[in-house]
Write a sequence for this structure.
């Protein structure tokens, strides 16, 4: 059913039969074209980046990268319909402005309704608000355990334990881990809010450091200091940053 | 420590009882003043000697060893302790110089108290065996009640786990996919699901089932999951035939299989192989399930595995220390192993 106005769709589910039933339903609908099928979140992020689909049908429970993490990585422009056996994610799905939320087993009628909803959307309208607004507050989710960074079609997964420090770079932040830097478009304050406040401390307007990486703190002048990391790297410490650092170390 | 001595109020009550007995004895024998005053505390001493069967009862339980041994041991103990006590009485009475006059009455008195001490000691032995038996049956009752309530919980949990979103809805979605593409496979899946659910309901109402039945249920569960996972789920089995008739609590292996899928295979992009193993080692049955994992387990991220915890508690309740769940593994494999006494299912059952 391809055509100039066809809705170019990607199906993402780790179960082959779950993809099959969606493919079969979509084949019976006018002007919908399945351009890719993905068996996991990584493939999905890559396919979305390469093919810029009009719609993603997305499972929630998948290995490594779940549906919500995929949404975080592919950003706001792509309309998403969640397809899952779990009804407890519905609220969160609408918080990330999913177009619809279908429960397995899925009926063709319900899927057609969801597709109609996608078509009603005015083209070019941003599907979702900025990423910050769609994440539930840290107090509800607990601190992040890993950082996801998209690099073109690839996804880097950085364990927070492997994170050395985070550096603000204009509109981006750089996540430093094992000698590599990964750039992500996100304000530093948001990163700070996501990280465990017992393990990470903001030592400067532009730097958050992993406490376990600090070797020592040295004064430079009367009012300024540097943190020296175990790998020898030096990071600036502001006066308020030093207060936060000592408060954390004393409390520990 | 003896339970009477462990509690101050019981100790005092017991001592008072023997003081009264001692006074009664002295009065009955019409002992003169000084001897009367001496014999009462001496009887009290014998009262505490009569607590020693408690240790003998535990050392020589009636159920173990030859039948003649416990009575013989207690008889010997009674003779020895009564002799020693009579000797003590003799010495004390001689020291305070209030021995009954004339060798004959001395011998008579001591024969009388010896003849009474021996049966009293033996009576104490019998009472101790009775008390221990009552105690043991009470413990067994508590354990049985505990096992029953845990089994009931397991039944509920098994039903909930298998009937809620995760398993049932996904299975129905698979069937829905198969109806048009492969109707025969859809029918097979319906039958598997039906058999599995019926098996879960039926087996969970029994107290013990042969391992073979449990493994058949596990096979149905895995067959259903294999339809869903496709090539991502591979299985290997190493089941020793002599294990199939061993009695186990129902639904105790199935949670391990579920755990292996949910936390192992389902979390890996490429899936992996789940292996099931059952064998007998010495007089123990060992059932183990292994699955691949990605990296070492992270305690802070992993939710407590409720299923495994329940298996552990049920084994404990059913077998005491004889039943164990051991979990372990490394960065690549996770292994959960059940060990329990290998007893065969009764043929009549």
């Amino acid at each position: 059913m391809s055509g100039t106005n066809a809705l170019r769709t990607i199906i993402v589910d780790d179960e082959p039969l779950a993809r099959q039933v969606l493919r079969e339903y979509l084949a019976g609908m006018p002007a919908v074209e399945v351009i890719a099928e993905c068996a996991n979140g990584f493939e999905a992020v890559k396919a979305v980046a390469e093919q810029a689909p009009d719609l993603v049908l997305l499972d929630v429970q998948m290995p490594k990268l779940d549906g919500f993490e995929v949404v975080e990585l592919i950003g706001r422009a792509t309309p998403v319909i969640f397809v899952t056996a779990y009804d407890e994610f519905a609220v969160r799905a609408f918080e990330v402005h999913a177009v619809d939320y279908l429960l397995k087993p899925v009926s063709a009628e319900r899927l057609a309704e969801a597709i109609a909803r996608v078509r009603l959307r005015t083209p070019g309208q941003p599907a979702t608000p900025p990423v910050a607004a769609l994440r539930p507050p840290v107090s509800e989710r607990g601190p992040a355990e890993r950082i996801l960074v998209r690099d073109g079609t690839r996804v880097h997964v950085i364990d927070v334990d492997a994170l050395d420090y985070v550096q603000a770079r204009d509109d981006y932040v750089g996540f430093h881990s094992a000698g590599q830097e990964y750039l992500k478009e996100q304000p530093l304050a948001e990163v700070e809010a996501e990280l465990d406040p017992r393990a990470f401390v903001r030592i400067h307007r532009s730097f958050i450091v992993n406490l376990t990486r600090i070797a020592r703190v040295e004064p430079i002048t009367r009012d300024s200091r540097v943190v020296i990391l175990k790998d020898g790297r030096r990071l600036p410490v502001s006066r308020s940053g030093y207060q936060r650092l000592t408060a954390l170390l004393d409390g520990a | 420590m003896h339970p009477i001595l462990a509690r101050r109020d019981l100790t005092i009550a017991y001592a008072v009882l023997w003081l009264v007995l001692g006074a009664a004895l002295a009065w009955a024998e019409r002992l003169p003043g000084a001897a009367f005053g001496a014999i009462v505390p001496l009887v009290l001493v014998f009262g505490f000697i009569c607590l020693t069967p408690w240790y003998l009862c535990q050392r020589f339980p009636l159920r173990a060893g030859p039948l003649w041994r416990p009575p013989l041991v207690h008889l010997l103990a009674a003779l020895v302790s009564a002799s020693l006590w009579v000797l003590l009485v003799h010495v004390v009475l001689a020291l305070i110089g209030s021995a009954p006059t004339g060798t004959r009455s001395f011998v008579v008195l001591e024969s009388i108290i010896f003849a009474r001490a021996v049966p009293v000691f033996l009576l104490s032995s019998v009472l101790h065996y009775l008390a221990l038996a009552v105690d043991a049956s009470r413990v067994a009752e508590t354990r049985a009640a505990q096992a029953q309530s845990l089994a009931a919980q397991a039944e509920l949990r098994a039903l909930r786990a298998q009937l809620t979103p995760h398993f049932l809805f996904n299975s129905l979605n698979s069937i829905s996919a198969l109806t048009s593409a492969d109707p025969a496979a859809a029918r097979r899946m319906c039958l598997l699901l039906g058999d599995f659910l019926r098996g879960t309901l039926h087996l969970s109402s029994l107290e013990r089932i042969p391992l073979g039945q449990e493994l058949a249920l596990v096979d149905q569960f895995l067959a259903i999951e294999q339809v869903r996972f496709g090539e991502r789920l591979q299985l290997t089995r190493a089941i020793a035939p002599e294990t199939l008739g061993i009695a186990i609590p129902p639904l105790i292996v199935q949670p391990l299989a579920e755990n292996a899928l949910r936390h192992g295979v389902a979390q890996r992009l490429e899936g992996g192989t789940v292996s099931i193993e059952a064998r007998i080692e010495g007089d123990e049955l060992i059932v183990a399930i292994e699955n691949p994992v990605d990296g070492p387990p992270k305690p802070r991220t992993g939710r407590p595995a409720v299923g495994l915890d329940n298996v552990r508690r049920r084994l404990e309740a059913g077998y005491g220390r004889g039943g164990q769940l051991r979990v372990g593994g490394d960065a690549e494999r996770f292994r959960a192993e059940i060990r329990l006494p290998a007893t065969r299912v009764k043929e009549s059952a």
Notes: Chain A has two domains: 7-131, 144-251.
